[in-house]
Structures are given as structure tokens and as C-alpha cells.
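re: ur question from yesterday

yeah so i grabbed the chain u mentioned. its 63 aa long if i counted rite. heres the sequnce exactly as i have it in my notes:
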Amino acid sequence: MQNELKTAIQFDDFYTVFGTKGVVAMAWWLGALHADRIRAEHHSFPFLHIEGEAGAGKTFLMS
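ran it thru and got these C-alpha cells back, copy pasting raw so excuse formatting
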């Protein structure tokens, strides 16, 4: 069932829900999966700081 969910979610849906900031967070998250390799080549990887009002979806976005 989880694989069906992964194939059902489209990038356009993600952008509609989270907008440009969500895409930036997703790009950072995907980069974080390879942070060790990025740090080895570039000697750094940026931190991501997310802030906002309660209930804005910060925790949901990060999970």
C-alpha cells in the first residue's frame, strides 16, 4: 500500500500544497540524503532552518 501512495503523489500536488518554499525544503532533504558525499567534495552542506506559525505545516513538511 505504501508503494501505491508513493506513485500517487505527483510533484504538482506537492507544489500546490507547499509552494516554492516546500520545493526548497524538498531539494534540501534530497540533498541531505547524500550529505556525506556532498561534504566530502565541497567541505560543507547547508543547514535548513524552518520557522513559522503554529499549525503552518512545519512538522508535516519535515516528516
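noticed a couple things. The chain has one domain: 2-62. also The chain has a mean pLDDT of 81.
anyway ttyl
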